[in-house]
Amino acid sequence: MQIALLTLLHILIPVYWLGGDLGAFYGSRFLVDPKRSVSERMLALKILNDIDMAPRTALILALPTGLTLAVVKSWLFISPILMLLMWILAFAWLGLAWLLHVRHGGPSESLRKLDLAVRYLIFIGLLLAGGACLIKFIDVPIFIGFKMIALSLCVLMGLIVRRMLKPLGPAIAEMKMDGPSPDSDQAIANVISQTQPAVLVIWGLVLVASYLGLATPL
Question: Which chain regions cross the lipid bilayer (predicted)?
Fold first, then answer.
């Protein structure tokens, strides 16, 4: 029963991750559509941001659910205290992510920097841990190492997407204040189109990690 529930929970991670990303991907079409009114495009932006919390939540929960499942299946040994600490930290990070979303523009810059620092630490930690698994420095099935590396690259691509999205804020503010113009429309469209290849890479990585988890080939 315990393994079945943990397996179901871990399988739901890519389901909500890809489902949310697909919804945000589709919603972005309304944001860049110059035929839509400003209010319609702002509504599309709000829906896009809300839907995007599904993949953000999935990313944060992917590691604790995956490691817990690995421990239950005896692929990996982690002491109960460390497991509890891992879940506490995961929920703390999840709470921070949701706080930044719900109070958009409200939280201090220090909280945003904290969230960013956590993501960089997770990226580096997962990459190093995955490499250690591949060279058998950590004695676990090799596919777990590949999954860790795939997740670390998802975090990295998410950071890259964040950087790409920086020009979107000023363009949206200009459109909201002065109304749509060819310049603001083009700026919004450019940002969205630039992020799409990175999003597709994330989808590919999630699918690879999902296959490795289901097939456990190595």
Answer: 6-32, 53-72, 78-100, 120-138, 144-161, 198-216
Question: Phi then psi for 98, rounded to 5 degrees?
Answer: -70, -35
The tens digit of pLDDT for each residue in 30-82 reads: 888 888 888 888 998 899 999 999 999 999 999 999 999 999 998 989 999 99
Cβ atoms of residues 87 and 64 within 8 Å: yes
Q: Which residue has the tokens 């989808």?
A: 203
Tokens of 168: 């979107």
pTM assigned to the model: 0.91
DSSP for 151-207, written as a single string: HHHHHHHHHHHHHHTTTHHHHHHHHHHH---HHHHHHHHHHHHHHHHHHHHHHHHHH
Collapsing DSSP to helix, strand or coil, 101 comes out as helix
